[in-house]
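Weekly structure sync, notes
Attendees: PL (lead), two postdocs, one rotation student
Agenda item 3: pending single-chain targets
PL asked that the sequence for the first pending target be pasted directly into the notes so everyone works from the same version. It is reproduced below exactly as submitted, 462 residues in total.
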Amino acid sequence: MALTETVPAAPAHEGILRRQSLRESAARTYARSLPIVPVRARGLTIEGADGRRYLDCLSGAGTLALGHNHPVVLEAIRTVLDSGAPLHVLDLATPVKDAFTTELFATLPRELAEKARIQFCGPAGTDAVEAAFKLVRTATGRDGLMAFSGAYHGMTAEALAASGGAQHTSVVRLPYPYDYRCPFGTGGERGAELAARWTQSLLDDHKSGVPHPAGMILEPVQGEGGVFPAPDSWLRRMREITAARQIPLIVDEVQTGVGRTGAFWAVDHSGIVPDVIVLSKAIGGSLPLAVIVYREELDSWQPGAHAGTFRGNQLAMAAGAATLAYVRANSLDRRAGELGARMLTRLDSLAAAHDCIGEVRGRGLMLGVELVDRDADADATGARPADPGLAAAVRDACLDRGLIVELGGRHSAVVRLLPPLTITDEQADAILDRLADALTAAVRTTPGPTGSSPTTMRGTTP
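Predicted structure, written out during the meeting:
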């Protein structure tokens, strides 16, 4: 009888990943670059089925303001479950919904909250963006929209049309301030002022080809676009321009909201009060929830003009109210601003040591590192071409070191950090230590975009 060699069975998580690749659509994204199978999570930490632990700086694309499975969120969910309350109620009034709305309005700019209406939309931020567009079109009787280069507002048709990757759209595209690659070649306050003048000129020039729009939508910090905090002065100019021309201003706070940027809402930095604010992600406390809040004079909808089957998610409202209250009571917005500034200082030091870092930027705990080809010639403003290959290598090296990050930006060359607002100083240092180590490893082994030579640190040779 012949002896046969016993082949060890593949670990269970490998089978799960293999079946995912066979059964899920080609549109899957994070699963391609993060081949892990999360089984447990708490705070900043995820444990995979392979037993490895990871520091999660993706946070559900900014959804997890309090990190994974925060006790106040779990308790809020358990309370609803144990109470016997209905979980699915369409748009009916419930104590849970009333508590959520009350807590949300308590956080909003007072001028908006005092005379506001709220619309509960479908479960995703893109549903709320669609609702905002429909709202301003109904209220103004106009059709066109104004949006900005580099924007991201969701994956439904209208939201995509207002995003930076749109190919066929009637939405008017405007320049968004971008210091490192300023379209006007200046950057800084001068570049922001020129962008504002361009916007004003299009609206006031009757031969510009831009009809009076139904609304303007912007992000106070472009996240997916590459982590670009808009200058406060520019945001105030956009508010002045739109208010003077009776154009409703829609602010997309889906990713920037609930303390992420160092203020409870990113518009708080500039002091502007939008006509419509789009909210999702963190407001659901890790569960699906999306709303728009808007000035009552815009509320000209007829009953049923906008609806959604899952707009009555009681668990999400309970988790969201608990999250909002916890962030507010513990001043986590202020904490995010202070810790984010300290992390940005360390990232600046990292940039000083690596020619492959074009720019670091961010606000609060919404940070980005743009990676560039150090061997390429800089343009007139000092910017070098993006290096998406190196960015991918850094992301992979981070994962090898137990750090989960994501990429964004025009060429997917910006390493983005979105840690929970609850991280400690020690955890922030651990994140940056692992990122620095991953960057050092990646620049030693990754060829530049032309394949000519590896990218190296300043003051070193390959």
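Discussion points:
- The longest strand covers residues 357-362.
- Residues 109 and 273 are 7 Å apart (CA to CA).
Action: rotation student to compare against the earlier draft before next sync.
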